[in-house]
Amino acid sequence: MSIGLHKSDFANPVIRWVDSRLPIFTMMQKEYGTFPTPRNFNYFWNFGALAMINLLIMIATGIFLAMNYTAHTGMAFDSVERIMRDVNYGWLLRYAHANGASMFFIVVYIHIFRGLYYGSYKAPRELLWMLGVVIFLLMMATAFMGYVLPWGQMSFWGATVITNLFSAFPLVGETIVTWLWGGFSVDNPTLNRFYSLHYLMPFVIFGVVFLHVAALHITGSNNPLGIDPKGPQDTLPFHPYYTAKDSVGIVAYLAVFALIVFFFPNALGHPDNYIPANPLVTPPHIVPEWYFLPFYAILRAVPDKLGGVLMMFGSIAILFVLPWLDTSPVRSMRFRPLARPFFAVWVVSFFVLLWCGGKPAEEPYVTISRVAAAYYFLYFLVILPLLGRLERPLPLPESISLPVLRGGGPLPAGAMSKPMEKA
Amino acid sequence: MVGFRSLKALVLGAGLVAGLGVQAPALAAGGEIHLPDTRFSFDGLFGHFDRASAQRGFQVYKEVCSSCHGMHQLSYRNLRDLGLSENEVAGIAATVQVMDGPNDEGQFVERAGRASDRFHAPFPNEKAARAANNGAYPPDLSVIAKAREGGADYLHALLVGYEEPPAGMQLGAGMHYNKYFPGHQIAMPAPLNSDGQVEFHDGTKSTIDQMARDVSQFLTWAAEPELEQRKAMGVKIILFLTVLGGLAYAVKRKVWADVH
């Protein structure tokens, strides 16, 4: 490799001067300007960009909240109320941050749904997918610790229930819990370390997001047809086509976000969290935030504590091996007539678990959770591995630019034996 | 893509059902309690506080509730938001004695309250409050409208919901029957117990229902003093985003015109 200046094509002399020494402009141009992107994205492909925007909103609002928040059991609740009353636009910062967490999960759940439906996890994007699962786990940890900070009743009791889960592990369980708490109950040391970690984690997420995007820019994006672009006729430069399309999505997303923040700011929260934490009074129902309810339902569906904890973590861990559980070489479910209904039932089971998680742990919700949880796992562990062998996929289009194969046209040569050009 | 469309409908339907289920009140376990809808002025997209009602509500709080319930998040100066003048606020604050200090001699002295002081607390601490209230702790009311399922509707219902217990129901010692309280047994005796209990200066007839409405209005303002500014800003932002969305969509159509 030759030593010296990078050869820069920018006309502006200042940009060229910088770019020839540090080619960030060339990089931006390559990755976000001319980056070849499949031309057939639908609006589901907006949600990656939306998640990125959401992360930035959370970091920006969070930094200003941190300037006014006091991480102390005796002062946290009142410091949050002071933000709501006496800090300029403090109510806006806090409601945007609290509801921003809900928006983040809505966006990421749709992003994951899109990946599952269009087979974005399959080769060659396995590592890209796994990095995504890491981001999802980090998000869950961050959101959980953030919910503890206002030090309301649900903060305290949610923290108590969730940290206690670790006590289920034999031998090391109790030690882990003491270590998490920084003592022998959820108390001031717990609040302090959660605050510290809650501030740290978003930057860790940011780092993994960078890797996620870097991996994406090696393999390129999947697309609704799930077939690889075969040349320039199948792609468009990212700018202006997808910057324009993402802009539409971003405005729609902001409108939904604004509707919640300005008109229903407490609809997604629990009223009990406006009661200051009290270790002596247990709320009648301890429920986590809505976005954890499916996993909470799986936890409670298992009669054994350790079993429940393992199933709950397993329900997310299973996503790591999904690229190898799904044996079908066809990515998009548009061409998988059998997988489609099974996946639809899986999505329903996810929402059923979400619903059950918010209900008290009694009949009929326990039985319903068990059925839904069983299907959740069955889909990944049995149905997907078998379908790849049993299912006869529909003929794949020849290319993205020639997708029209209406009325069951002739199978492209070798479509059945070799459904994808490049697996 | 019929299959995909029906999948979308299914997922959307399931999502809606789940979403509604999550919102179901936590009261459900104690038997379904239906709150009467009180229709407050602050409901809806263009909601605002009824200042006269909130001022009357403050009077109810001051003359009735404040003997047991504190509101420590509020300062007297906040009352200016309700349309009270600076002098009126100073006058209200001056009616309480505040322990201040230490002064330059190191002494703590009592002085008349100022607008910058927090609302006077009825009890020095929780133990004193419990000792004076048959072991029950009257909660702080600063954010009570946000801390109860149903908000202002619930507060209003609770205050008018006292009645004789149904035949055969055994109340605990010192407990009272309230048809809207979860479990129906509440330690607080009916605070609003007779029409005309509070004499409103503006001539409004102080029925129990009226007092309950007014104090619920006041408590909602106390819990969400930003509500009016929030909703007004929300309307502007939604309008702005609607226009911006139209423009963004037009730009997208124009950019994509040559490839469709």
UniProtKB/TrEMBL annotation, chain A:
It holds the Pfam family Cytochrom_B_C. Residues 14-225 form the Cytochrome b/b6 N-terminal region profile domain. Its main location: membrane. Signal peptide: none annotated. It is a multi-pass membrane protein. Keywords: Electron transport, Heme, Iron, Membrane, Metal-binding, Respiratory chain, Transmembrane, Transmembrane helix, Transport. Binds 2 heme groups non-covalently. The keyword Transport applies. The chain crosses the membrane at residues 43-71, 92-112, 127-149, 161-182, 194-216, 248-268, 306-325, 337-355, 367-387. Its cofactor is heme b. Residues 228-398 form the Cytochrome b/b6 C-terminal region profile domain. It is found in: Membrane. Belongs to the cytochrome b family. Component of the ubiquinol-cytochrome c reductase complex (complex III or cytochrome b-c1 complex), which is a respiratory chain that generates an electrochemical potential coupled to ATP synthesis. The main subunits of complex b-c1 are: cytochrome b, cytochrome c1 and the Rieske protein. This is Cytochrome b. It comes from Paeniroseomonas aquatica.
Automatic annotation (TrEMBL), chain B:
PROSITE patterns: CYTC. The chain crosses the membrane at residues 233-251. The keyword Transport applies. Keywords: Electron transport, Heme, Iron, Membrane, Metal-binding, Respiratory chain, Signal, Transmembrane, Transmembrane helix, Transport. It is found in: Membrane. The keyword ATP-binding does not apply. Gene3D superfamilies: Cytochrome c-like domain, Cytochrome c1, transmembrane anchor, C-terminal. Residues 1-28 form the signal peptide. It holds the Pfam family Cytochrom_C1. Residues 52-159 form the Cytochrome c domain. SUPFAM superfamilies: Cytochrome c, Cytochrome c1 subunit of cytochrome bc1 complex (Ubiquinol-cytochrome c reductase), transmembrane anchor. Belongs to the cytochrome c family. This is Cytochrome c1. It comes from Paeniroseomonas aquatica.
